[in-house]
Amino acid sequence: MTTGRGRSIRELIERGEHSYSFEFFPPKDEAGEAQLWQAIEALEPYQPTFVSVTYGAGGATRDTTVRITGRIAQETSLTPVAHLTCVGHTRQELEKILDTYQEVGVQHLMALRGDPSDGPRAPWTATEGGLNYATELVELARSRGDFRIGVAAFPELHPSSESLEQDADVLVAKANAGAEFAVTQMFFRASDYFDLVDRVRSRGVDIPILPGIMPILNLANIRRQGELIGTDVPVEVVERISAHEGDATAMRAAGIELAAELCADLLEGGAPGLHFFTLNRSKATLEIFSALNVQV
Fold first, then answer.
1. What is the CATH number of domain 9-290?
2. Which residues carry out catalysis?
3. Where are the strands (E) in 55-180, listed by range?
4. Average pLDDT in the 186-191 region?
5. Sign of dihedral through CA atoms 192, 198, 203, 204?
6. What's the predicted TM-score (pTM) here?
7. How far, in Å, CA of 247 to CA of 265, rounded?
8. Structural contact between residues 66 and 109, judged by C-beta atoms closer than 8 angstroms
9. What average pLDDT score do residues 133-144 get?
10. pLDDT at residue 1, as a whole number
11. Cβ(107)–Cβ(147) under 8 Å?
């Protein structure tokens, strides 16, 4: 079921308690789907504000995203947020997808420009007859149906951005177009998150900004992903994890400990909640919850 009209995710985030939310990706096969539903079942008792389902580059997972998000809406107590990107779609195709989301009971949307098919650092080329910016997708979704819309935010420099100030201007534009909340890209310094919030607030916009949390379970993988999306893995973080090189269990434990410390700093500093990139597994998130003493 969904939160229903009139009760937006923004209202749920701001209801006075810390918000917890989880991000999943569309599985590629039956085994992956079984793993996804195991994670959903393990995390559902924590009553997250919402769960989101990502959308593959160029719409590669379109049908699976719609199906999984619809199933969450219809078969669980969770509020699903469906991702949608501009990449590879005409305006008419996007309108059709929005209509499909409404038909399956999905009222909440993450509106994203999306990365080029060749990766986040590749030059952006709009699809003929499509959209160029997430702001345009927010406006389209607002005009197409009763959607409550979230957008992406970047504590560190977006790969195609000229400055952090420009990134803040873009987020403000998305809020002014109708976005009700934002979720950040992963980061590893609480100060980067709070500096982003300050930049947005100084522009007169009070949109809730949820910090995106990605625990480091594999340092090499995180570093590669960070290089692609413009996220820096601080030297002190690398040193703490690398100190256990050769001991995969100890390295993983250090990654969980660092993530829990970051989460604690964010909540203590006033972040409205935490959004976990789960990679379709529940174990790491539950370990962080244990460290934070989050109870079912």
1. 3.20.20.220
2. 23
3. 80-85, 108-112, 148-153
4. 95
5. positive
6. 0.91
7. 27
8. no
9. 94
10. 35
11. yes
Cα(128)–Cα(249) distance, integer angstroms: 49
Enumerate the domain spans of the chain: 9-290
Q: What distances in angstroms separate CA 167 from CA 124, 229, 237, one per listed residue?
A: 16, 14, 25
The CA distance from 162 to 105, in Å, is 39
Residue type, 130: G
> Are the CB atoms for 82 and 54 separated by under 8 Å?
no
Total number of residues shown for the chain: 296
Single-letter amino acid, residue 255: G
Classify 207 as helix, strand or coil. Answer: coil
Measured between alpha carbons, how far is residue 214 from residues 21, 89, 149, 153, 210 in Å?
A: 13, 29, 22, 15, 13
pLDDT tens figures, 5-62: 447 899 989 886 789 999 999 988 999 999 999 999 999 999 999 999 998 765 557 7
Please report, for residues 63, 279, 294, the alpha-carbon distance to residue 38 in angstroms, rounded to integers and kept in the order given: 21, 12, 20
DSSP string, 9-52: HHHHHTSSS-EEEEEE---SSHHHHHHHHHHHHHHGGG--SEEE
